[in-house]
Description:
26% helix; alpha/beta; 8 strands; 4-stranded mixed sheet
Amino acid sequence: MTIKVEITVKSMELTEQIKEYVTKKASKLDRYLNGIDLVKVDLANMKTARDANDRNVAQITVRGRRILVRTEERADDLFTAFDSAWDKMQRQAERYKGKRARGRGDGRTAAEVLPLPEEPLEEEILIARRKTFDLIPMNESEALEQMKLLGHENFFIFFNVETNSINILYQRRDGSYGLIEPKIH
Length: 185
């Protein structure tokens, strides 16, 4: 099966050598995870980085059916940054694969379960950035594992299959974790 590899660059030129190198390695991810739809590789040269050893950034995001894994690494050389991110992705893929032995969820989307009430806005609110993402049904332990795999340190939003609701998992100051379970009144 051929994996779609999408490469984007920022503040640099995508040479044929870089493109071939990244595509060749990224297309091998199906050895570690089944059901991958897209491997997105973001490469950037941050000229304003404080440390010269952190100027080149490589971020790899793997998306697929019930899969979302991301790694990011920085180095003084682009190939070194990509290789470090690739090694980290391999470790995370193996870890992810080991934790996902059983199925989950009933296949319904969060929108089907919880219709949002429509209320008119009283005043104009300026939203600086809007971000959308797919919620994958999972239980609390799977959400904690996914939070760690994605490198989210503050919070993680997920659809809890045990309560059929959207929950927010967050890390507390003492290092433990908290869970927010919203209720609609």
